[in-house]
Amino acid sequence: RPVAPEKMNIMPEHKLSSVAPLNQCNAEKKEVELILVKDQNGDNRETWGKKIDFLLSVIGFAVDLANVWRFPYLCYKNGGGAFLIPYILFLVIAGMPLFYMELALGQYNREGAATVWKICPVFKGVGYTVILIALYVGFYYNVIIAWSLYYLFSSMTNELPWLGCDNSWNSENCTDPQVINGSVIGNGTSYAKYKITPAAEFYERGVLHLHESRGIHDLGLPRWDLSLCLVVVVFILFFSLWKGVKSSGKVVYITATMPYVVLFVLLIRGVTLPGSMEGIKAYLHIDFKRFKKTLLIFYSLGAGFGVLIAFASYNKFDNNCYRDALLTTSVNCVTSFFSGFVIFSVLGYMADKHKVSIEDVATEGAGLVFIIYPEAISTLPGSTFWAILFFIMLLTLGIDSAMGGMEAVITGLTDEFKILKRHRKLFTFATAFLTFLFALLCVTNGGIYVLTLLDKYAAGTSILFGVLIEAIGVSWFYGVDRFSEDIERMMGFKPGLYWRLCWKFVSPLFLLFVVIASTLTSSGLKYDEYVFPDWANVVGWGVAMSSMLFVPFYAIYKFFSLSGSFKERIGYCITPEHEHHLVAEGNVRQFKLRHWLAI
After folding, report:
1. 147 to each of 41, 97, 142, 182, 237, how far by Cα in Å?
2. Which residues make up the binding site for Na(+) (predicted)?
């Protein structure tokens, strides 16, 4: 006996025939919508030659000198293994979500850091903020790379120049490191602060000529040798970037991979040295007493400089930037942790050699990579080879990070001003030359004082402020739900609830706390025993404010440059540019409670 279709749970034929066209219609509608989105966001934009070019560029930018000279020391000073708890926590609740957000923002809108704010025009000022910060960083970061290049050239001798006290730059007080031990140094002075070793004098007197300056008020003329090294660095950057991502994407094959090869080789050599295991134990020793005293430390993975937005804007529209974010942030973390073994195996050797504690030789920053580590290398058989290897690593670590910063400036401004895009090579040269001119201040006798000032103020509180405003602009004003729909259009799936909650609540609150804390706990500038005058701190805050003030000033300018009633102007300011017709119709999404409650 035949059974009716409805009783067999089979859709009747006339209904089945109507569903097929409906599904096909939805698919076609979605495809048309995707084509319109791609066309609206510039589908003819230049793209990376290969996916690996993008990944290496992002990793090369994120993994920089700080991974080697700052993380291991902070980990050691703040509880060793215990430090990894807040580090990973901050990474998960702020670092990764913001990294993912910037990659997705750049990839979907296919614009640089300024023009990407077509999604919410009133926030365009933060785009100029991060571009200016990236430019400021280039002023002094290139100088550190120039130091590395100077050390590299100086290493190409049979006997390393920081080995003895019989050089023209040495003082009468220079002391042979072979006779220095705990009793010679005396109580209260750590070996890392002992300024009359050959290595310390080579850095401060032979390279910086700091002894010829009385302070930041007495800079002197640029040193010709460091200026030449700076010229070489700037030319490397120019020829790496002048053809856009097609050229820079190939340079990173060397600059992003070389540090890992060298780190591995240095680790193998380091663990064979006497005392190395004690250094590694000190690095990993868990001390929760120190952990309790730890101030909140926010490690930027590179978010906030406009670099990730710029790099991602050259991706293919359907690239899986979620996977890229997880991969590159994980590589960055592992690199920081791994470099600690390389550094502390050698610090253990130095402590054993001079019969002092690890704490006496442990230091961070330039003192670590230009004094302590080179001195340790100079005592090894084949010291010239190890020195050349080490400074090649520093050079490559710096170059690709500097490339990222300069690309953020170039992409951000060429997308905003089309005339610059038509003359990209000339504009790239102009940008490189501008960074060179300002960097000359940092290669004078007192240049280290200028560099210290820029390092603290150019990208300190201001970069945290920039990321905070960026997170608020995307998650609250543009809308985290709309942002999630953009990501779904690119990759076929929406971000999970965890990412949406971080973008809307956790990351902005965390950044707000850090911005307030960094402002309130800010102290006056010091370099070793030299205390900067008050006017230098005022100049520093002027540098910081010069970038941050773009946010309110541009918002005010945007509001008054629009026509219409007060309400209409607000609507135009916070509505994506391609939806401005909705403002005229009175249909402003942000004027509805549902927009602000959406997750």
Report:
1. 42, 35, 9, 30, 16
2. 60, 62-63, 67, 300, 332, 397, 400-401
pLDDT tens digits, one per residue of 420-463: 999 999 999 999 999 999 999 999 999 999 999 999 999 889 99
- Model's pTM, two decimal places? 0.91
CB 483 within 8 A of CB 107: no
| pLDDT number for residue 296 | 44
99-129 burial, b if ≥16 CB within 10 A, otherwise e?
bbbbbbbbbbbbbbbbbbbebbbbbbbbbbb
SS3 of 136-173: HHHHHHHHHHHHHHHHHHHCCCCCCCCCCCCCCCCCCC
3-class SS at 102?
helix
Give the mean pLDDT of 472-487.
Answer: 96
Q: Is 360 annotated as a binding residue?
A: no
**What is the number of H-type helices and E-type strands within the chain?**
32, 2
Instruction: Determine the average pLDDT of the residues in 497-525.
Output: 92
pLDDT tens-digit readout, 171-195: 998 887 766 665 455 555 677 777 8
Q: Is 60 annotated as a binding residue?
A: yes
Strand bridging mode 530-531 / 526-527: antiparallel
Cross-strand partners of 302: none
pLDDT band at 217 (very low <50, low <70, confident <90, very high): very high
346 annotated to a ligand binding site: no
400 is in an annotated binding site: yes
- Asked whether residue 1 carries a pLDDT value surpassing 50, the answer given is no
Torsion of CA 188, 191, 193, 199, to 10 degrees: 160
In this predicted model, what pLDDT tens digit does every residue of 311-350 receive, in sequence order? 999 999 999 999 999 999 999 999 999 999 999 999 999 9
Who's near 63: CB < 8 A, 6+ residues apart?
A: 256, 259, 331, 332, 335, 397, 401
The alpha carbons of the chain give a radius of gyration, in whole angstroms, of: 27
C-beta neighbour count of 3 within 10 angstroms: 8
187: left (phi over 0), alpha (psi -120 to 50) or beta: beta
300 carries a ligand binding annotation: yes
Confidence of residue 397 (pLDDT cuts 50, 70, 90): very high
Structural domain spans, the chain: 53-182+189-547, 562-598
Q: Percent helix, strand and coil across the chain, each rounded to 5?
A: 75, 0, 25
Chain-centroid distance, C-alpha 310: 13
CATH topology of domain 53-182+189-547: Amino acid/polyamine transporter I (1.20.1740)
Q: What is the 3 state secondary structure string of 443-468?
A: HECCHHHHHHHHHHHCCCHHHHHHHH
Please give the single-letter amino acid code of residue 317. Answer: F
Asked if residue 63 belongs to a known ligand binding site, the reply is yes
Listed in sequence order, the residues at least 6 apart from 411 whose beta carbon sits closer than 8 Å to its beta carbon are: 112, 113, 306, 310, 313
Q: How many residues does the chain have?
A: 599
Annotated binding residue 401: yes
Query: 415 a known binding residue?
Result: no
